[in-house]
Write a structure and sequence with these properties.
The complex is a heterodimer of chains A (254) and B (84). Chain A starts with a strand and ends with a helix. In chain A, strand 2, helix 2 and strand 3 form a beta-alpha-beta unit. Chain A contains 6 helices and 13 strands. The longest helix of chain A is centred in the last third of the chain and has 20 residues. Chain A folds into 2 domains: 175 residues, FAD/NAD(P)-binding domain (3-Layer(bba) Sandwich); 72 residues, 3-Layer(bba) Sandwich (FAD/NAD(P)-binding domain), CATH 3.50.50. By secondary structure, chain A is of the alpha/beta class. In chain A, the strands form 3 sheets. In chain A, strands 1, 2, 3, 4, 5, 6 and 13 form a 7-stranded mixed sheet that branches. In chain A, strands 8-11-9-10 form a 4-stranded parallel sheet. In chain A, strands 7-12 form a two-stranded antiparallel sheet. By secondary structure, chain B is α+β, with helices and mostly antiparallel strands. Helices cover 36% and strands 31% of the residues of chain B. Chain B contains 3 helices and 4 strands, in the order βαβαββα. Chain B has a 4-stranded mixed sheet. The longest helix of chain B is centred in the N-terminal third of the chain and has 16 residues. Classes of the chains: A alpha/beta (254), B alpha+beta (84). Chains A and B meet through strand 8 and helix 4 of A and helix 1 of B. Bound molecules: flavin-adenine dinucleotide (FAD). Flavin-adenine dinucleotide (FAD) binds next to helix 1, strand 2 and helix 6 of chain A.
């Protein structure tokens, strides 16, 4: 039985783990992919205080090392659902089940996928959600960027130096026939589908909670980008991690 | 023979995060031959295998592709994909 099980090893979850361990709680972090979260695709972070121009990978390696050094356990297993048994929660993963007195949801966001129509249009062509990750694979070839926000503009600028042509289309436009790869930048959605019936979500799927990070369910807290809030950044995710852990500790010591 | 090709690049963050995962996997499964391919140095090979996103893991059985995964994954998912 763990005191705190944290779902997601991004910056919010790992910061919560640091705070939980420092309060001598038994902490487990569950991560479905690799640790680090969304920021591992970024080369240079300019707004992380004390780490000017640090890379996402370097920053997350440090935070991961800090959390595990302080005693956090980490298992790489995707969480499928949570069951409330009153005084403890059961966390059901793909391979194992875990028990915890409190749970912190820190599952962040994922890129929004292409619409069904565009996905059909795309056929067998490459679909990418990150130009800096995959752009170089399409040197001197025509590509297309889907999306109208700032991210889409960034992707276009980046790809213009690599591809032979960069088309720009909006959500639901037809995909140009000669484009060999489709770069999708149409926003992000919270990774909260698995707790849809467990805690209150807003209409976009974010876990409803104020600055105290308390969800609609007793003993369940939320931290980071998957919470309802205005500013989704590393520092605010880390801050949530601290608050959610403190609230969980308070709940445990009650 | 079962072989796993790991297409990666030095500038790719998720590829760096996969390094310890693959090391862990290699230590557990010496029966699977893991080959690393840098897509910048070996563009032709990457093109031949139609690599359209990295990290890309391609599983070969006697040289024939039987499965592939694009994006970072955990050791457990990798083991499931390979069936070991
Ligand atoms: C391209 C890009 C550039 C950015 N640049 C900056 C920047 O320069 N400065 C800045 O401050 N912010 C930046 N951000 C925002 C920043 O990355 C996020 O605010 C921050 O990473 C949120 O952290 P998080 O821990 O809440 O979520 P995430 O980083 O999304 O981590 C969530 C983790 O939970 C895991 N997970 C999800 N569901 C499950 C499940 N069911 N079971 C187990 N694990 C699960 C995921 O695999 C992931 O590892 C950028 C974001 C992007 C996409």
């Amino acid at each position: 039985m763990y005191d705190i099980v944290i779902i997601g090893a991004g910056i919010a979850g790992l910061t919560a783990a640091i705070y939980g361990c420092r309060a001598n709680k038994k902490v487990l972090v569950l991560e479905g992919k690799v640790y680090g979260g969304q920021i591992i695709n970024t080369f240079e972070i300019e707004n992380w205080p004390g780490g000017y121009k640090i890379s996402g990978v370097d920053l997350m390696k440090k935070i991961y090392g800090q959390a595990t050094d302080l005693g956090a356990e980490v298992e790489f297993d995707e969480v499928l659902k949570i069951v409330d048994h009153g005084d403890y929660k059961e966390i059901v993963c793909e391979d194992e089940k875990y028990q915890a007195k409190t749970v912190i949801l820190a599952t962040g966001t994922d890129p929004r996928k292409l619409s069904e129509k565009q996905a059909k249009d795309a056929g067998k062509r490459a679909i990418s959600y990150c130009a800096t990750c995959d752009g170089a694979l399409f040197k001197n070839k025509p590509v297309v960027v889907v999306g109208s926000g700032n991210t889409a503009k960034h992707e276009i600028k980046y790809l213009e130096n690599i591809a032979s042509k960069v088309y720009h289309i909006h959500h639901d436009d037809p995909i140009p026939e000669d484009a060999v790869a489709i770069f999708v930048a149409i926003g992000r959605i919270p990774g909260t589908d698995f707790v849809r019936d467990f805690v209150k979500l807003d209409s976009e799927g974010y876990v409803v909670a104020g600055e105290d990070c308390k969800t609609s369910r007793d003993g369940v807290f939320v931290a980071g980008d998957c919470r309802t809030k205005d500013t989704r950044q590393l520092v605010t995710a880390a801050a949530d991690g601290a608050v959610a852990a403190e609230m969980a500790i308070k709940y445990l010591n009650k | 023979m079962i072989e796993l090709i790991d297409f990666y690049a030095d500038w790719c963050g998720p590829c760096q995060m996969m390094k310890p995962v693959l090391e862990d996997f290699e230590a557990k499964h010496p029966e699977v031959k893991v080959t690393k391919v840098n897509v910048d140095d070996e563009e032709e090979l990457a093109e031949r295998y139609n690599v359209s996103g990295i990290p890309c893991l391609v599983l070969l059985n006697d040289g024939k592709e039987v499965a592939r995964n694009v994006g970072a994954i955990s050791v457990k998912k990798l083991e499931k994909m390979i069936g070991v």
